[in-house]
Amino acid sequence: MKKWLIGLVAVPAILIGCSSNETEVDTNKEPVDIAALEVKVHILTPEEIAVNETVELAAHVSQNNEDVNDAQTVEFEVWESGYRDEAKKIEGKLDADGVYKATTTFDHDGVYYMYAHTTARGSHVMPKQQIIVGEPDLSKVKEDSEESMNMEMHDNMDTSENEVEMDHEENES
């Protein structure tokens, strides 16, 4: 009984002795504007282009309304609708004032899509734009399926994420 009573008094005494009286102080007096930290990419490429005309693929990168001239990568991925697996990637180079550019030529009429893959300041942003080249027969245009685009993104996931998804799928079965 004495041991039990000593234990009842000793444990709280030890816990009180180990606790800290220091309080955490938030020295940030201004609230953090999360939206200001967001990297934004605005595609400047025209949505309609003539066949066999050299076109400038361009994107303006900004953060907190300021130009981003130090993006790690800006890569334009272009493909004809229905042919996502044949996409070509073109590296964008900084021109000026947060604008990254590359050039390409479309050799036939069609509906194309472009991602402006941008990695800057710890974020990856990839806005998408449709580009109509020439005068395509829209009845013959192959649609891009969302499934093929989701598969591409799934294929790019790292192995640990794939393993987690696989475990989750097995648990559902």
Give a brief description.
It contains four helices and eleven strands; from the N terminus they run H-H-E-E-E-E-E-E-E-E-E-E-E-H-H. Strands 2, 5, 6, 9, 10 and 11 form a six-stranded mixed beta sheet that branches.
Give a written overview of the molecule.
26% of the residues lie in helices and 36% in strands. The chain is of the alpha+beta class and 173 residues long. The strands form two sheets. Strands 2, 5, 6, 9, 10 and 11 form a six-stranded mixed beta sheet that branches. Strands 1, 3, 4, 7 and 8 form a five-stranded antiparallel beta sheet that branches. The protein is elongated and about 95 Å long.
Keywords:
Immunoglobulin-like; 4 helices; 26% helix; disordered C terminus
Work out the helix count. Answer: 4
Return residue spans where pLDDT drops below 50 for at least 5 consecutive residues: 147-173
**Helix content bin:** 25-40%
The first-to-last residue Cα distance is: 54 Å
Largest sheet: 6 strands, mixed
CATH class of the domain at 34-139: Mainly Beta
Label the structural class: alpha+beta
CATH topology descriptor of the domain at 34-139: Immunoglobulin-like
How large is the radius of gyration?
A: 27 Å
Number of strands: 11
Mean pLDDT: 80
Tertiary shape: elongated
Q: Secondary-structure element sequence?
A: HHEEEEEEEEEEEHH
Q: What's the architecture of the domain at 34-139 in CATH terms?
A: Sandwich
